């Protein structure tokens, strides 16, 4: 095999009109970095027409007119930054008196980075690596890489001719650029596939987004799972006339847990005797009652005698009547949710809790406000469970991006890495 061919294979250059000389590879210092430079000549077939005026070449109207050297960045070879110094053919058009240069499919017009390099970087953008890392390992500025990502973002468009039957809405803490800090994400509740990510969750904005789907398409949506953000209810009612709202069970449990926890910290502050105990063993209070161990006696630092987990909880609840009542309310609500006991849940939230702390009252009021959709959650299988994985991915991407500023790039990155949105054409 000739050197010519070896070089071609190593560099993965398919354009047969690029020719390498025998001594084509040199080591040179470029921008302070020892690099590999490959010298080559581009001598394609004589052009059929002038690229400036479009005139067909006849009777030698287009003639050769010297050469022009361009430097093209290739993917790294053996970890060396690699350049192709390509001598291109220049032509002169007698019809329009302009000159033009031969084009290769190695690079896009007016671009000095080869398509191979672009594709290599693109594959890396799809992995959980920071742009900074990718920039360093490919010797391409992060500004360039970010501009590619921005460009890709505009190619991710959710087709408006269909929607899955079951949707899942959620929001997440977004990038710095976003006002209000929360961005909106919605997925297919059956597959977990991301359907789109939108800058913010303002209801007017979301309405106009969903209204751009034809009514026939919106009518096909049967359920929407979501948290208890009030705005979403109005959104679903006006955009999806046939959809049932499902409050995600996880959010119901989370809300009652949080309000119980705030009661605990309040008691903790007021009751010095129990301060450290309530602070140290809060996890036992949050455990499901049935999961507490009542057999094994262990040493707990804040208690002088050996005790079981169950005994520790009993002791903690002795700190305050109020705390004890809130504890049982939390346990019962969680039980009714986990066992899907509709009547039990309805009964629990219909009771009067005026004697309990404000935070518990507010939570119970919220449950009453969202009663229908919470009861739907106990009837239907759907939840935001699949979205949780996506939210973890979002956290990872934010971390590797060192706090993305631009929402556009952030969105593109999430969609690329999650690999769930199909209509991307490059
Ligand atoms: Zn011309």
From TrEMBL:
Entry coiled-coil feature ranges: none
Domain Transposase IS204/IS1001/IS1096/IS1165 DDE residues, every copy: 167-414
Superkingdom: Bacteria
Cited Pfam families: DDE_Tnp_ISL3
Protein name listed in UniProt: ISL3 family transposase
Organism in which the protein naturally occurs: Erysipelothrix inopinata
């Amino acid at each position: 095999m000739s050197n010519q061919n070896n070089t071609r294979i190593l560099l993965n250059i398919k354009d047969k009109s690029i020719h390498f000389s025998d001594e084509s590879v040199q080591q040179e210092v470029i921008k302070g970095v020892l690099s590999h430079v490959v010298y080559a000549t581009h001598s394609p077939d004589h052009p059929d027409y002038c690229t400036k005026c479009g005139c067909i070449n006849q009777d030698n109207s287009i003639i050769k007119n010297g050469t022009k050297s361009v430097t093209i960045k290739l993917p790294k070879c053996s970890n060396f930054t690699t350049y192709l110094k390509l001598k291109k053919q220049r032509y002169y058009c007698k019809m329009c008196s302009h000159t033009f240069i031969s084009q290769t499919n190695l690079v896009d017009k007016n671009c000095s980075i080869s398509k191979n390099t672009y594709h290599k970087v693109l594959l890396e953008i799809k992995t959980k690596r920071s742009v900074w890392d990718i920039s360093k390992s490919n010797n391409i500025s992060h500004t360039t890489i970010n501009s590619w990502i921005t460009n890709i973002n505009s190619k991710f468009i959710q087709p408006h001719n269909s929607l899955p039957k079951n949707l899942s809405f959620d929001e997440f803490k977004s990038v710095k650029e976003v006002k209000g800090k929360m961005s909106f994400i919605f997925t297919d509740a059956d597959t977990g596939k991301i359907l789109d990510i939108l800058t913010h969750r303002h209801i007017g904005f979301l309405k106009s987004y969903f209204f751009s789907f034809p009514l026939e398409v919106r009518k096909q949506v049967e359920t929407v799972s979501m948290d208890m953000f009030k705005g979403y209810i109005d959104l679903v009612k006006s955009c999806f006339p046939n959809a049932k709202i499902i409050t995600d069970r996880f959010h119901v449990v989370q809300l009652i847990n949080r309000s119980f926890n705030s009661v605990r910290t309040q008691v903790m502050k007021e009751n010095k005797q129990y301060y450290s105990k309530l602070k140290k063993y809060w996890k036992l209070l949050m455990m499901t009652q049935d999961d507490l161990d009542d057999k094994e006696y262990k040493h707990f630092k804040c208690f002088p005698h050996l005790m079981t987990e169950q005994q520790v909880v009993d002791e903690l609840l002795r700190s305050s009547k109020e705390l004890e009542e809130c504890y049982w309310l939390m346990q019962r609500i969680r039980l009714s949710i986990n066992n899907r006991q509709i009547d039990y849940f309805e009964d629990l939230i219909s009771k009067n809790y005026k004697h309990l702390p404000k935070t518990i009252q507010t939570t119970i009021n919220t449950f009453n406000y969202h009663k229908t959709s919470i009861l739907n959650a106990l009837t239907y299988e759907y939840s935001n469970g699949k979205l949780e994985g996506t939210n973890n991915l979002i956290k990872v991407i934010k971390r590797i991006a060192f706090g993305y500023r631009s929402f556009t790039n952030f969105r593109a990155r999430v969609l690329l890495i999650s690999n769930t949105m199909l209509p991307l054409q490059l």
